[in-house]
Amino acid sequence: MYFDETHEAFRASLRKFVDNEINPYIDEWEETTAPLHMLFKKMGDLGFLGIRYDPAYGGQGLDYWFETVLLEEIGRIKGLGVATAIAVQTNMATPAIAEFGSTQADFLTLLARTSDEPGYHSFGLFVVPTKLPGFNVSKKLSKLGLHSSDTAELFFDDMKIPAENLIGEEREGFIYQMKQFQHERFAVLPGIHVCVREMVDATADYLRQRVVFGKPLITKQVLRHRLAGWLMRNEALKQLTYHIVRLKTAGLDVTREVSMAKVLAGQLVAEVASGCMQMYGGIGFMNETLISRYYRDSRIMSIGAGADEVMYEVVARLEGF
Ligand SMILES: Cc1cc2nc3c(=O)[nH]c(=O)nc-3n(C[C@H](O)[C@H](O)[C@H](O)COP(=O)(O)OP(=O)(O)OC[C@H]3O[C@@H](n4cnc5c(N)ncnc54)[C@H](O)[C@@H]3O)c2cc1C
């Protein structure tokens, strides 16, 4: 009811891409880090990036439902590392450039203080080419999860950024970033409701074939009810996600709904990953079992892009508490 045949055709080509170009290699990339330059080039060539952006700048000029399809399908990637890297590209690094700036390759999007004055109007948002002198990247940081995408600290040592690399107005960077956060936080929602579904389905399959004292574990009511309960909350998350897409399509502010949904999604995916691992028993604790990767990867969702406590605060303020 939300997606027409053009969305479904787009979904089919994305699914094929994930099945053929990502999932077969994901175990290897967990060890070595995914070749993201190559992957993004392939995705760009196939029209999977810049979905909402103006075709005049190389985008596809498509609607939020197409973007939702992309974010749902990357939720089928086995683990959250590469999916997060793609969402960083599509919904974190580029929305402010599309909305307020012009474009450029091999860049990062940087929010920097441009004046010592207190308040929100003392930051600039910049497109920073990574080839400029003074730019350095630390060694890859060792982290709990998301092993297939690398994370590093960035250093800016007396770096001079050309004035034309400023996005929009000089003092409005913080305001632009606050708007961009809504795209960034939304980006986790479609992938998470798909990922939760995948974890529950895979766990149910395991419980069907795991026989303990003569009976498959799936016959244990306590386990079946727990799976069903997660799907109930996941359905609510999915419908809230689609509600947000409708609000975005109508041009309405979604800060309240996105903040609420981000908390629900982050908590649900971590709870389901942990709970499913419990149902796998000892084998679930082994790295060879996919659920252990989801257990590690899911924990970031309540921290990154605004910790849960910050999201609660946003909602409390908007509610006038
Ligand atoms: C793998 C990874 C990738 C990342 N990638 C990026 C990236 O690409 N770009 C980028 O800019 N950042 C990135 N980050 C940073 C990330 O956005 C921050 O870690 C996150 O927003 C939390 O901020 P912080 O670490 O400074 O925690 P802090 O602000 O120090 O907060 C620590 C904890 O205190 C609590 N807390 C914070 N504020 C409040 C409050 N107001 N009320 C109550 N409790 C509060 C929360 O529990 C919070 O988790 C990344 C982080 C990780 C781990």
> Mind telling me which CATH architecture of the largest domain this is?
Up-down Bundle
Question: What string, H for helix and E for strand, traces the elements in order?
Answer: HHHHHHEEEEHEEHHHH
Strand content: 5-15%
Number of strands: 6
Write down the overall geometry.
Answer: globular
Bound molecules: flavin-adenine dinucleotide
Query: Over the alpha carbons, how many angstroms does the gyration radius reach?
Result: 21 Å
The proportion of residues forming helix, as a percent range, comes to 55-70%
**Structural class given helices, strands, pairing?**
mainly alpha
State the fourth-level CATH superfamily of the largest domain.
Butyryl-CoA Dehydrogenase, subunit A, domain 3
- What do we call the CATH topology of the largest domain? Butyryl-CoA Dehydrogenase, subunit A, domain 3
Poorly predicted spans: none
Verbal overview:
The chain folds into three domains: 5-100, Acyl-CoA dehydrogenase/oxidase, N-terminal domain (Butyryl-Coa Dehydrogenase, subunit A, domain 1), CATH 1.10.540.10; 107-173, Beta Barrel (Butyryl-CoA Dehydrogenase, subunit A, domain 2), CATH 2.40.110.10; 187-318, Up-down Bundle (Butyryl-CoA Dehydrogenase, subunit A, domain 3). The chain contains eleven helices and six strands. The chain has helices at residues 5-22, 26-32, 36-45, 64-74, 81-93, 95-100, 173-209, 221-249, 255-280, 290-298, 308-318; strands spanning 107-113, 123-129, 135-137, 154-156, 211-212, 215-216. Strands 1-2 form a two-stranded antiparallel ribbon. The protein has a two-stranded antiparallel sheet with strand order 3-4. Strands 5-6 form a two-stranded antiparallel sheet. Strand 5 and strand 6 (215-216) form a beta hairpin. The longest helix has 37 residues, at 173-209. The protein is globular and about 70 Å long. Bound molecules: flavin-adenine dinucleotide. Residues 88, 143, 146, 151, 300, 303-307, 309-310, 313 line the site of flavin-adenine dinucleotide.
